[in-house]
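Lab meeting prep.
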Amino acid sequence: MREELAGFTIGVTADRRRDELAALLERRGARVVLAPALRIVPLSDDTELREATRACLDQPPDILMANTGIGMRGWLEAAEGWGLAEPLRSVLAGSYVVARGPKARGAIRAAGLHDQWSPASESCDEVVDHLRRRGVAGQVIAMQLHGERQPDCTLALEAAGATVIEVPVYRWAPPTDPAPLHRLIDLIAGRLVDAVTFTSAPAAEALLRAAGDRSEAVLSALRSDVLASCVGAVTAEPLLRRGVPVSAPGRARLGALVRTIVDELPRRTVTFKAGGHLLTLRGHAAVIDGELRPLAPAPMAVLRALAQSPGRVLSRTALLRTLPRGADEHAVEMAVARLRAGLRAPRVVQTVVKRGYRLRVD
C-alpha cells in the first residue's frame, strides 16, 4: 500500500495549525480526529501587555528571551497599534537576544533584530542555564511568555540577581466547543485511536485536565495501546513526567512529526496467518493479503480479541466484554457476521459449536 497510514486513526490536539497537520496525515491515508485542546487568545488590548511594554521602554532590557514566533509578532503588532513599535524595536536592538526555537528566531529577524543564541533543546531550562553561566546579576531580562507564566524560569533568573519583565502576549484558553475534545478523550480511553499528536506542552496538560476522573484511563491507554506523538522534547515533558512513552522527531517540525508517526505506527501492528490469508491489524482496518479492509468498531474489537491468541476458542461471553456496554450475545453474533463480511474471507473466523469462535490457523 502506498498510503503508509491507511487504516489508522490519529487524534490532533493542535488548534492554530490543525488543518495543516491534518492534511499531512490524511495525505498518507490516516483518518484524522480534530479536537483542539486549547485555543490562543491574543492580548493586543490587554493592560498587562501594555504595562510590560512600557516597563521595557523605561528599563531597556539587557536580555530578550523570545519564546515563540507568534508571540514576538503579536507583541510588535500590538506595539504598532499603540504607536510604540519603533521605540520598542530600538530598545530591543541593544539586547542580547535569545531565541528559544526557529520560529522565534524567524520572528526576531523579520523584525530587523539580531539573535545571538538558541538552545539545542528549545527548552526554557537550557536558556536559564545558559544565562546564569553568562551572568545576569544586575541585568534586566524581558521574557516573552508563551501562553502561560513560567514561574520556575522567572524565579531562577531572579535568584541569580536579574530583574525579569514578563511579557504576556497571549494566553491559552479552553476550546470554544469542548465536545470534540471530550469525544477524543473517550476514543483514547476506549483505545479507538492509534495515536494522538501534541504540538505544545499546555495542550497535553489541557487534555488530561479535561479528562477529569478519566485521566488515569487516558494515561493507561497512552502508556500502552495509543501512541503519544509529540512535536519535540519540550512538548513531551508533561507526558514523560507521568510515565507515558512518547515518540518525537529530532527537529520540532510538523513534517518531521508526521514522518515519525509513519515510521512508528506500522511497527506496532499485529500480523498473523489465518484461514490461508495473511492479516495485519491496523486501527480501524485489517490488511488482508495486501488489501485494506476497513471495519466498524465492534467487528474490529472482536478481531483484535481473537488475534491475541490465534487458534484459541473465545466464548461469546468473553467476546461480549470487548463490545460496548449494553451489548448482548446477539450483538457478538452480529459483530462476527459483519467481521466475516468485511474481511471478505469467510474461512478466517471459525464457529466452534457450543463453545464460541476462533481464528482458523490450520
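Slide two material, second protein:
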Amino acid sequence: MAITRLPSAGFSITIRIAVTADASSIGRLTTSVGEAGAIVTALDVVDSDPTHVIVDLTCDTADAGHADQVVDALTALDGVDVRKVSDRTFLLHLGGKIEVTSKVALRNRDELSRAYTPGVARVCMAIAENPADARRLTIKRNTVAVVSDGSAVLGLGNLGPAASLPVMEGKAALFKRFGGVDAWPVVLDTQDTDEIVQIVKAIAPAYGGINLEDIAAPRCFEIEARLREALDIPVFHDDQHGTAICVLAALTNALRVVGKRLEDVRVVVSGAGAAGTAIMKLLLRQGVGDIIAYDREGALHRGLTGLNSAWQWLAENTNKENYSGDLPGAIRGADVFIGVSAPNLLTGDDIAQMAKDSIVFALANPDPEVDPREARKHAAVVATGRSDQPNQINNVLAFPGVFRGMLDAHAEEFTEEMAIAAARAIADVVGEEKINPTVIVPSVFDSRVAPAVAAAVRAAAHNPSPLPAADPGPADLPEIAANASATP
C-alpha cells in the first residue's frame, strides 16, 4: 500500500529563479509549487532589472524525487529560468556540524605554561596518584563518546562508519545544545562484537559516559551488556532506552487524556528489535495489562518455533490470549498501538477496529506505520516521530537530560530507576492541566525538559528506590539476550 509522503524540512530546497517582472509572476511560482505538493517556506527577492526579477524560493518537499518534480514544474512555466537548485540539508552539513573550541585562553607564555608544559605535569601526577581526580581535572566530567559501527544507520541499514558520521555529529550537537554535554563521534571500522567491546573499553578513560548508537541487533544487546559489566561509567544504548523513556512518557499523558490506566490496557507493539524490546520491558515493569509483540515471524505466541531467546521469552511472558494472527487482527480491540518497525503496515480502517479512545504511536521514520492523517480519523491520540506532526516522540527529549544527570551524579551505571524517573519528568513537564490529544509531550525546544530530566536522574542515582512490583516481577525479567532480533 502506498501513501503520499508528507513534505519535510529534511528535504528543503532553495531554487534561484529568474522570472519576468510582471504582476502575476510571483503568484505563478508559488501556485506551481503548491500544485506539485510542496510547501513554500520563504521567497526572497535577490535582484531585479526593468524586465526580470531574481528570487530565491525555498520549499519543503517529500524526498529527492519530489524535489526534482517541483523543479521540473517550475522549469515548464513560461518566462521562468531556473538557475540553481540548492539542497539546504547538504549545505548545512558542509564541513561537518561540530568543532572543538578551547575553554582557556592561550594568549601568552604564562597561560601556556599553566595549560601545557611545565604546569600540566603537576596535574598529571595528581591524577596518577588519585585516578578519581580525572573527573574533576579533565574533560571526563562532562564528555560522552557517541559510538557507532554504522550497521543500523537510522532506518537506512548497514551503511558503514563513514556514512554514519553525519548522524553521530548531529547527536553530539544535540547533546551540547540541549544538555550542555560535550560529546564526540567515535565511528568504528569494525562490526565485530569483541573488537567493538575492546575498543570502547580502551578509550573509556577519557569519557564520563558511553552512548551507543545505530548498532544493529542482536550485537547491540551483547555489546551493551558486556560494556556495562566492564566499565565504571554509564553505558546507554539510545535506540533502546531513549526510545523506551520517551514512549513511556508519551503514553503516560496519552492515557491521562483518554482516562485509562496502564494496567487495564492492551498494547500491540510492531517491531520486537532493540527499541521495541526495550519499550515492552519498561511497560511490563510498570504493570501494563497485556502486550502483543509483532515482528517478521508474526505475533509472538506460545507454540511458535525457531525463535531466538529474547523472542521466546516475549512469547512466553506476553500475549495472554496467545493470539497468532496478523497485525490488523492483533490491533482489533486493542487500546494502544506502538510502531517501531516499518512504514505503511496499517490503514485507517485498521485503526477504526481498535478500542474506543484508542492511542496510536506510529514511530517509523520518515514514513510511519500508518498515515497519521488517516489514524486521526479514528484514534483519540496519535503520535509520530516526525517533527512536522503533532506529538513528536523524539529521543532528544530524553538522552541529553539523562546524561546530564548521570554526569552530575558521577553515576557508574544507567539504571531502570533512572529510566522511569526520566519518563515521569518528561510527562510532568507538560502538566496535567495542559495535556490534550495534540499535546502529550513537551516540545524538544522546551527549555524545562533537560533540567527536569537531569534532576530526576540525579535523584534516582543518589536515592535509588525499589521499583513497584509488576507481573512478571523485576526478578523474572531477563536481560535482553545477545541473539535478539532487529526490527523489520
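Talking points for slide two:
The longest strand covers residues 8-20.
The chain is about 40% helix and 15% strand.
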